[in-house]
Amino acid sequence: VQLQASGGGSVQAGESLSLSCAASGLHFRVNLMGWYRQTPGKERELVATITSRGVTNYADSVKGRFTVSGDSVKGTVFLQMNNLKPEDSAVYLCKLSTLGGVEWGQGTLVTVSS
């Protein structure tokens, strides 16, 4: 299985970005999809997840600003990020959980300037 993430970039505070992640080579049903982020010197943190039934979960820091969506059959997951803040700057990684295990994407860099 390979995950390809895209959509990162550099924006000003208050602007928006959309991230996409698509899986190829899936052999098992996806039951959980999500986004995590990581900055140097910090642990990887959960941003948002969505189950195959559409149940979502968000980090408190992004609630009301970010929206996660996806298609568990296709193995695609998206993250709409609005009103971005400098503290949102990080490498964003997508993650898919299936019966066969967990897969991580390669990460896409988001930089937010004040």
What's the helix and strand layout?
Blueprint: E1 2-6, E2 9-12, E3 17-24, E4 30-38, E5 45-51, E6 56-58, E7 66-71, E8 76-81, E9 90-98, E10 101-104, E11 108-113
Parallel strand pairs: 2-11
Antiparallel strand pairs: 1-3, 3-8, 4-5, 4-9, 5-6, 7-8, 9-10, 9-11
Description:
It is a single chain. By secondary structure, this protein is mainly β. The protein is 0% helix and 59% strand. The protein is built from no helices and eleven strands. Strands 2, 4, 5, 6, 9, 10 and 11 form a seven-stranded mixed beta sheet that branches. β4 and β5 form a beta hairpin. It is globular, with a radius of gyration of 13 Å. The N and C termini lie far apart (37 Å). 33% of the residues are buried.
Note poorly predicted spans.
none
Structure classification? mainly beta
Largest sheet: 7 strands, mixed
Tell me the number of helical segments per DSSP (H or I, 4 or more residues long): 0
Q: Please tell me the overall pLDDT.
A: 95
**What amount of the residues lies in strands?**
over 45%
Order of helices and strands: EEEEEEEEEEE
Through-space gap between termini: 37 Å
Shape category: globular
Rg (C-alpha, Å): 13 Å
Helix content: under 10%
Count of extended strands: 11
